[in-house]
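Notebook, p. 212. Picked up where the previous page left off. The plan for this session was modest: take the two constructs that came back from the sequencing core last week, fold each one, and keep the raw output in the notebook itself so nobody has to go hunting through shared drives later. Recording the first one now, exactly as returned: residue sequence, then the structure token string.
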Amino acid sequence: MPTIIHSTAIVEKGAQLASDVGIDAYAYVGGMVSLGRGTHVCHHATVDGKTQMGENNKIYPYAYIGAPTQDLKYAGGSPGLKIGNNNTFREYCTAHTATKEESETVLGNNNVLLAYAHVAHDCIVGNNVIMGSQAALGGHVVLHDFTNIGWGTGIHQFCRIGKYAMVGASSKATQDVLPYMLADGSPARVRYPNVVNLQRNNFSDQQISQVKKIFKIFYLSGLNKAQAIEKIKSEVIMSDLLDEFLSFIDSTSRGFV
């Protein structure tokens, strides 16, 4: 299908639109934007800045994708925003460009951002992430694949949320959340393994049992971090799952909830 641009939409000179892009009434697309095939910009939505967007993304009304960074250290230039394929940005979502020239805010593939969700400058959002309505990421946050951020939840600058982890609704995460865990509260604390997410993503019963055992040793045994890690290594079968958990701990700089 050919690209269809409504007569009331504004597409600035220099914008690059692939085939099968739809731009609805009163939408705005800036001159440095690149939109991949099948992408749909709904009425009154905005895509601006140095934004490179892949295929089959949908931007709902009043969302603003590619807004300038709110970082007060911004010194000019055209930092970027890079977005993959098959992402959904619901009403009033915002995703900001990075702060420094030649740097990018990055979102991967198959992510869903519900109404009013916010991705700040220099964040890295992986694949298959869900952000609830009014969830907000501070600058430089990293969301690993298959994470879930609940309604009205705030993630502090520079925090990381591990694979398959969840931060529950109305929470505040000020440190990293380890993979496979469910954190909740303000400040957030790990409460349980994120079993529902694991089941939905076809983890085996054996793998889920491993996660439960890791949780019990790490959070309920009363051991310090080094002791818990040694006990986990001795009692849990080595696997990609365990390697992901231990590697995440090794790479944390803010500590973890």
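Okay, moving on. Second construct, recorded in the same format:
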Amino acid sequence: MIDAPTKLLIDGELRDAQTGRTFTTYDPAHGRDLANVAQAGTEDVNAAVTAARGAFEGAWAKTSPAKRARALNRLAQLLDEQTDALAELESRNNGKAKWQCAAEIKVAVATLELFAGTAQHLYGRSHVVNPSVVSYTLREPVGVVGAIIPWNYPLMMAAWKVAPALATGNTLVLKPASATPLTAIRLGELALEAGIPAGVLNVVPGPGAEVGEAIAAHPGIDKVAFTGETSTGRRIAQVAAQSLKRVSLELGGKSPNIVFADADVDAAVIGSLWAIYYSAGQSCEARSRILVQDEAYDAFASAFAEKAKSLSVGDPLNDDTKIGSLISRSHADKVRGFVEMGVADGGELLAGDGLSLGEGLDGDAFVAPTVIGGVANDSRIAQEEVFGPVVTLTRFADEAEAVKFANDVRYGLAATVWTGDGARGHRVAQKIRSGAIGINTPFIAFPGVPFGGFKESGYGREQSIEALDLYTETKAILQGTSPKAANPLGV
């Protein structure tokens, strides 16, 4: 067990669940218990919503945009100062390499700073309707936001929700994933230290079937922001629709990585490794389908498989570890099942058939970087989200077929195009139905760049100025300017 905050944070206080229930969160890489955490229930969600509503109508409503900006910048500073400790806590909690967790905390810092800069710049517009009427618009906060975040990027995803919501004057009830609640609770504590009033940010860990449902259904919550799997997002949308809440959803993906024959193969290999194996493939935008033009297929497949075999898999706390554990044994079993299915369906296992780990690690929670070649684009493993360090290789003949294969899935979150022809890169990017597309780069998510999906990858954009639309209402105010009284009925 470790020393970390493990209670609910409601109205500025760390407290036990009203039922007294707790649950255990784990260190998956080492196969041991990590902490006992207070398990919120419906009653705790009610209390958190009451606190958030009180803060929205009270202390936070009286906080000027300039003070909101200062508080967010101070929170960013506190996160920055505690990056190492937070990265270790997160690494232990989800099995990801510590250096990757540290990089994600820096993204959280940048996200808070980005939206702190928007707090004083929520501009409306003015309009002369006719010579007798002038109008202007105001951007006002939606109200109380319910934010539900996943286990793969616990602190970073929390910041993606917290930053725009607080910058625009909303208050939050934040539900972290049950597998990884520890850094979210710590974020709530640091928010208080940064000067954000009690009740503005409340943290309620607990099972999605109870806490997530309660948030989506609660009449006191005005908007739900969710990141997670598509089936859960669909359920949240259904429940939230009963009270016509605003909803934004960032969901699953089965993203293509297209390698044309004229591409720099070495650069494409190195970039494609990052695009799938970062976060052990447990990332919604992972480019898990590599589509390779026939003329380049053999050279790319050989080089990529050899590089995949060279990636170090091991203790997430070691600096040289490239790939840590998966989130749990059960999830690793699911990923291994996909690999078996892919081979049974005719794929060729090019990498991933061996794994050597150091002492003290739970081998059942690890999966080696896996490459399956010769996969048909309509096979299950090329269509379903694996969410692990597994990539498929599929041949294509020409540009038209590459675009067809890229779009022939139910998701549309991200894509990458590798080509030596600049015009082709832009032409193909415009034809792919995805929210973010990199040309000769695997990186598609930065603070300031819109992030979100098409199709069953969800709706709404985060990480950018467009996110402000998700957390504000537009109000129109009209002023009559004529010296004569308006008398449309002629009475």
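Notes on construct two before I forget. The longest strand covers residues 133-141.
Flagging for discussion at group meeting.
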